[in-house]
Amino acid sequence: MFPALHHLRLGARPTPGATRAGGSARGYLSRENEQRCRGLLEASTRRYRQEAVAAAVLVTLCSVGGYPALLYTLRSSTLTGQHKGDVSFPGGKRDSSDQDVIATALRETQEELGLHLGAESVWGVMRPLPTRRGLTVAPVLAHLGPLECVCLSPNPQEVEDVFTIPLSHLLQAQNHGYTHFRHQGRYSYTLPVFLNGRYPVWGLTAIITDLTLELLAPGAYRRRTRPPSTR
């Protein structure tokens, strides 16, 4: 059995002291909040859906044991490139046959996790973000539903592990960190890091997580860094 599947079946429970936050977090996947988020993403979806971006990722909302969570992958350490072994959302480079960025995110998720999702699962497209190499990545927000009802078949050539982090954990201040970068001896910028989970979430995946939490839970989460812009 793929080791990550056992982890998913066990589920992701709130961390100690997060019971109150976990209870309130259940509403973040409610129909009402879904409609609110879809409305907020409507303009960016129209604008960026056909954008000629280099890649797209599927920001995968789900519930585990009734608790809202985000699903992440750990990229295989046998891959080539600087992102091998990194925590990421499922996704990858756009193919010439992809109709739009949503098609890219859904296709790549199917290739990585064996997960077939329809466009109705997608809430919208968030603003594309630049990578350190100057490429642009479009985050596509989608809801998988209860993870216990989902059958995953991760591709071991691309995915080393699959895991979830409860929203209640991601929303707690003690699990937030920040990395400050310098350029030529001077402060340049700050990026968020999410700590105390199965793996630390950092880099572009942390930026997307940061923006997703702000969208889902505006009353409980305040973004403290400025995301990079492609413009």
TrEMBL record:
InterPro entries attached here? CoAse (IPR045121), NUDIX_hydrolase-like_dom_sf (IPR015797), NUDIX_hydrolase_dom (IPR000086)
Keywords of this protein's UniProt record, alphabetized?
Hydrolase, Magnesium, Manganese, Metal-binding
PROSITE patterns of this UniProt entry?
NUDIX
| Organism lineage | Eukaryota, Metazoa, Chordata, Craniata, Vertebrata
List the Pfam families: NUDIX
Q: Does the keyword Hydrolase apply?
A: yes
Q: Where is the Nudix hydrolase domain?
A: 48-195
List, in alphabetical order, the Gene Ontology terms for molecular function in this entry. coenzyme A diphosphatase activity; metal ion binding
What domain of life is recorded for the organism? Eukaryota
Q: Any idea what this protein is called? A: Maltase-glucoamylase, intestinal
Annotated signal peptide: none
Keyword Protease found: no
The organism named in the record is Platysternon megacephalum
> What cofactor is this protein dependent on?
Mn(2+); Mg(2+)
